[in-house]
Amino acid sequence: MLEVKDLHVSVEGKEILKGLNLTINPGEVHAIMGPNGAGKSTLSAVIAGNEGYEVTSGTITFEGQDVLEMEIEERAQAGLLLGFQYPVEIPGVKNVYLLKAALNAQREARGEGEIPAPEFMKLVREKLAFMKMDNSFLQRAVNEGFSGGEKKRNEILQMLVLQPKLAMLDEIDSGLDIDAMKVVAEGVNSLRSAERAILMVTHYQRLLDYIEPDYVHVLVDGRIVKSGDKDLALELESRGYEWVTEESAA
Ligand code: ADP
Ligand code: MG
Ligand code: MG
C-alpha cells in the first residue's frame, strides 16, 4: 500500500530524514517510536504533503502512485490522511462544515455527489457518540478553545467520518488522561480493517496496550534503525533508546 524508499528530507537546509525505508500493507498497524527530534513528525508530514519539507531523494508510493507528484488535496482524496491535517484553530469555521467539506471533496474525487444533509448528520452523530463527544462539538469552531484531549478526539472523529485508507496519527496519546486515551484507542481500533492501514507515532508504550501494533519501528536520527513487534516497545520502555542506536551503529 505505502512504500517509502531511501527517503531524504531537509527542512530549511538541514537534513532531517536520512535514508528512511518503510513498507506498509493493508490491514497493518505500524507504530513509530523514537527520541525527540528524530524525524517522526517530519515523516508523516512529508507523506501527507505538508509544506516546508524538501524531499532531496528517495521515493514514496501509495497504491502504486507516486505520492511526491501529488498535491496535498490529491493525497487526502486518494485516502492518505494525517490526523490534525488542520491542527490550527480556524476561527469562525465550524467543525461540522470542515468535516462535511472534507467528506464531499473525497466523494467528488470518486465521482459521487454531495452527501445528503440528513445522511451526513446521521453519520456524524453516530461517530460523535462513539467518541463520547457532545453534539455541541459540531458547532464549535475548529479546535478553538479545545483541550488537548478534545483535539485528539476530534482528530479521531475526522478519521471515523472520512475513513482513510492510510490513517496517520502523530502523538495521539500526548495530553490524554487515561479515560480519554481509552476512548481514542477504541476509535482507532474501530478503524482497523483488512483494507486499511494505520501509522501512528507514539512516545509511550502504554498506548500500545490498547492499540496493539503489528510492527514497532524505532526512528533515530532520520532513519528506522530497528523494527519489531509490540515486545520491542516494551523493551524500549524499560531500556530507552540508546542501546538501539549503539546496536545499529555497531
Ligand atoms: P520528532 O517528531 O521525531 O520529535 P520532528 O520530525 O518534529 O521530530 O523534527 C525533526 C527535526 O527537524 C528537529 O530537529 C526539528 O527541530 C526539525 N524541524 C522540524 N520541523 C521544522 C521546521 N518547520 N523548521 C525547522 N526545523 C524543523
Ligand atoms: Mg513529533
Ligand atoms: Mg533527525
Automatic annotation (TrEMBL):
Please state every residue range assigned to the domain named ABC transporter.
2-246
Q: Which Gene3D superfamilies match?
A: P-loop containing nucleotide triphosphate hydrolases
> InterPro entries of this UniProt entry?
AAA+_ATPase, ABC_transporter-like_ATP-bd, ABC_transporter-like_CS, FeS-cluster_ATPase_SufC, P-loop_NTPase
- Entry annotated with the keyword Nucleotide-binding: yes
Mind telling me which CDD domains this protein's record contains? ABC_FeS_Assembly
Please give the coiled-coil regions recorded for this protein.
none
Keyword Nucleotide-binding listed? The answer is yes
A Pfam family that the UniProt record links to this protein: ABC_tran
GO MF: ATP binding; ATP hydrolysis activity
Q: Which UniProt keywords apply?
A: ATP-binding, Nucleotide-binding
- Give the family from UniProt: Belongs to the ABC transporter superfamily. Ycf16 family.
Question: What is this protein identified as?
Answer: Fe-S cluster assembly ATP-binding protein
Instruction: Look up and give the organism this protein is from.
Output: Modicisalibacter xianhensis
